[in-house]
Design a protein that fits this description.
By secondary structure, the protein is of the alpha+beta class. Helices cover 38% and strands 15% of the residues. Strand 6 and strand 7 form a beta hairpin.
Length: 201
């Protein structure tokens, strides 16, 4: 029961934030938005996506992964040290709280070329030199978010559905402000104009 509550309640806000940031980035990069829309149109031809369609839209998935890199809703992850330890000269007492920030790690030039740029291409070819946990939008290890696969499935279904129906563009003059609370969210929302997308011919 607790796991079901976690999936439905904790996953609601994080997925909504991820969608907001994804379309903020797409609106700021119309060439990438066009490529994703073209892929969706080619695969779906106007119909709703099914699970079997998701592997056929790799660029759309890469867009989502890159949005999660730049704006991970779980922007900080905390763990309690079971034993005393030392990391890079820092003493960690038993019972101490250790915080790791995916937001900062995802923007570290040691792990990502052009770390501040929005580049979905980086996810189309695996980078074997990148450490496994350099990218952890859902945390890592035994306590990885229980809803990570469910959230990715949601995003890979909802993003194509919205791309098919709407052309979203930022309201002129809009400036993104972040609110790093329990989750990373847009402080004042993301203001966008929506126009009905052209139907596939």
């Amino acid at each position: 029961m607790e796991e079901l509550l976690t999936l439905t309640l904790a996953g609601h806000e994080t997925t909504a934030n991820a969608l907001a940031f994804t379309f903020y980035l797409l609106s700021s990069h119309p060439d990438i938005a066009r490529r994703a829309s073209d892929e969706v149109a080619t695969v779906l031809c106007g119909r709703e996506p099914g699970l079997e369609d998701l592997p056929k839209m790799p660029f759309t998935k890469a867009v989502i992964e890159e949005a999660l890199r730049l704006y991970p809703p779980a922007w900080v992850v905390e763990r309690i040290a079971l034993e005393a330890d030392e990391v890079n000269g820092y003493q960690i007492p038993k019972g101490g709280i250790v915080g790791v920030s995916p937001y900062l790690m995802h923007r570290n030039p040691r792990y990502f070329e052009n770390p501040e740029g929005f580049d979905p291409e980086r996810w189309l070819v695996p980078d074997p030199s990148r450490p496994k946990l350099a990218y952890m939008p859902f945390g890592g290890g035994p306590r990885t978010c229980i809803g990570n696969a469910f959230a990715m499935m949601e995003l890979q279904i909802i993003v194509p559905m919205l791309l098919q129906r709407f052309q979203l563009s930022l309201v002129p003059g809009f400036k993104l402000e972040l609110e790093p609370s329990v989750t990373l969210r847009p402080a004042k929302g993301i203001w966008m104009n929506a126009r009905q997308a052209a139907l596939p011919s």
